[in-house]
């Protein structure tokens, strides 16, 4: 694929995702009783990712500390 086409497609997808998330949080997108607030879902996913990242870093540091104690 052409590099300019890739950049343009990536920019369109990024701006589209941001606009959809913003519009879904500003207006009430309810279908069959389900609320489609994509910004809230993305924020929850990001917070979960940060939580697991911190836990994994903590476990890694504990394992490295135990490994250093053996030497």
Extended strand count: 2
Nearest-integer average pLDDT: 83
Give the % helix. over 70%
Which of globular, elongated, flat, extended, rod-shaped describes the shape?
flat
End-to-end C-alpha gap: 52 Å
Helix-strand makeup class: mainly alpha
Unreliable residue runs: none
Q: Tell me the fraction of residues in β-strands, as a range.
A: 5-15%
**What is the tally of helical segments?**
2
Which radius of gyration do the C-alpha atoms yield?
Answer: 20 Å
Q: Major beta sheet, specifics?
A: 2 strands, antiparallel
Helix-strand sequence: HEEH
- In the sheet with the most strands, the strands line up as 1-2
Give me the secondary-structure topology:
Blueprint: H1 3-26, E1 30-31, E2 34-35, H2 38-70
Antiparallel strand pairs: 1-2
Helix pairs in contact: 1-2
Molecular structure report:
The chain has 71 residues and is mainly α. It is built from 2 helices and 2 strands. It has a two-stranded antiparallel sheet. Strand 1 and strand 2 form a beta hairpin. The model has no long low-confidence stretch (mean pLDDT 83).
The gist of it:
The protein is mainly alpha-helical and 71 residues long. Helix content is 80%, strand content 6%.
Task: Name its key features.
2 helices, single chain, 71 residues, mainly alpha
């Amino acid at each position: 694929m052409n590099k300019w086409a890739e950049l343009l497609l990536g920019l369109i997808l990024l701006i589209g995702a941001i606009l959809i998330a913003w519009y879904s949080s500003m207006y009430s997108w309810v279908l069959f009783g389900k609320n489609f607030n994509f910004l809230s879902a993305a924020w929850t996913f990001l917070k979960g990712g940060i939580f697991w990242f911190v836990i994994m870093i903590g476990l890694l540091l504990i394992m490295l500390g135990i490994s250093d104690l053996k030497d």
